[in-house]
Amino acid sequence: MERKVGFFCFKDKSARLICALFALTLMLPQICLAGEEPEIQGQDAVQQQSEIQEVQEKTEAPNQADSQENREDPNAPDMSATLVAPIIPTYLPIIMYHQISRESSKLGAYVISDAEFEADMKLLHDNGYTTVTIKDLLAYVNKEGILPEKPVMLTFDDGFQSDYVYALPILKKYNMKAIFSIIGKYTDENSDEKTPRHVNYSHLSWDEIKEMQSSGLAEFQCHTYDMHDMSKRKGALRKWSESAEDYRQHVLEDLGKLSQACLEHIGVAPTAFTCPFGCYSDQLGEILKEFGFPAIMHSYQRMNILTGNPDELYILKRFLRTHNKDVSEWVAKWNELFKEPIEDVKKAEKKI
Fold first, then answer.
1. Which of 38, 232, 274, 300 is 20 to 30 A from residue 17's alpha carbon, by CA?
2. Cβ–Cβ under 8 Å, residues 225 and 184
3. Coil, strand or helix: which one is 68?
4. What does the alpha-carbon distance between residue 118 and residue 128 come to, in Å, rounded to a whole number?
């Protein structure tokens, strides 16, 4: 059978094979094996290599190039700088609690029922209030955080065991945070297994404090280690027979003892001082600042206005929650204040 290859015609297989081999030898110099690039020499090689390098520079890591350009530009913003939270003036109501009891005979100026406390939490929750702590206030004045739209602070003085038994479960139910100011001496005594205890009169133990702290809803502050007494002196105030230096040393020693105990048991030292019996003096205030407290809680019953000035934390005023107090009256007044932002502090002060 006759076959044609190119312009030639061949009749047998051997002739066709010879023709094919001949054609292959003519094409071989133009064939590149898979995965290999042809070797280019001379001026053509230099030109092609230059073109390849230019394309790589344009396409390689454009984001890295932009970042490098920004770092080298002295006018470019420093993206590593710490973000600063805006300071927005706000009202801050603080409620002062002491003890909770289920025995009606104990209810009074400093003791309320667990039903009353739960009613307070529900009222605050339903009116859109968010609880804050001293830690939150410090972040606010240091421009490291902002406060919620309607902040409120819950404080418990003296560190009674009822804080653990009655208050904590209710705080968990409504996801509310509270500040508990403990008296170190009483905490140590109630941590002793030999000490008889009852929720009607006992104070918190260190184990209870640890559990409360682990909930994330409890912050613990200083109510002195052993100066919550009116028989020796008026709270943490100076005695008439005491020199200024002796008084200073006594207070610093007391504060240091409770701070050390807190560090050992819960790993955090107090950052606020709560005045025993509400007793305060300028001399005490200077010692507290010397010790390093950035906040002091008082018993003056008035609304707080915070503008971001750290000194405002030295005069935190609180409303005393007593038995049979209609807290809804407080909340109604607070709601009216929160309706408008604070643009003029002096005008805001007249409203409270």
1. 38
2. yes
3. helix
4. 16
Query: Could you tell me if 184 and 256 are in contact, meaning their C-beta atoms sit under 8 angstroms apart?
Result: no
CB 169 within 8 A of CB 211: no
Question: Distance (Å, rounded) from C-alpha 174 to C-alpha 126?
Answer: 10
What are the tens digits of pLDDT across the range 41-72?
444 444 545 544 554 444 444 444 444 444 44
- Asked if residues 321 and 152 have their Cβ atoms less than 8 Å apart, the reply is no
Band of residue 114 on the pLDDT scale cut at 50, 70, 90: very high
Residue 153 DSSP one-character state = E
| Token digits of residue 2 | 């006759």
**Distance in angstroms between the alpha carbons of the first and the last residue of the chain:** 116
User: Are the CB atoms for 313 and 296 separated by under 8 Å?
Assistant: yes
Distance CA 4, CA 11 (A): 9
CB atoms within 10 A of CB 145: 14
- Beta-strand runs (E) in the chain: 3-5, 8-10, 90-92, 94-97, 99-100, 111-112, 130-131, 151-158, 178-182, 218-222, 272-274, 295-297, 304-306, 319-320
Long-range contacts formed by 261-265: CB under 8 A, 24+ apart: 261/184, 261/187, 261/188, 261/225, 262/220, 265/206, 265/209, 265/210
75 or 253, which is more confident? 253
Q: For residue 120, which of 151, 149, 91, 97 has the smallest C-alpha distance? A: 97
Q: Are 136 and 339 in contact (CB under 8 A)?
A: no
* pTM recorded for the entire structure: 0.77
In whole angstroms, give the CA distance from residue 145 to residue 152.
16
What does the domain layout of the chain look like in residue ranges?
90-351
Cα 86 from Cα 4, distance rounded (Å): 89
Q: Tell me the fold of 90-351.
A: TIM Barrel (3.20.20)
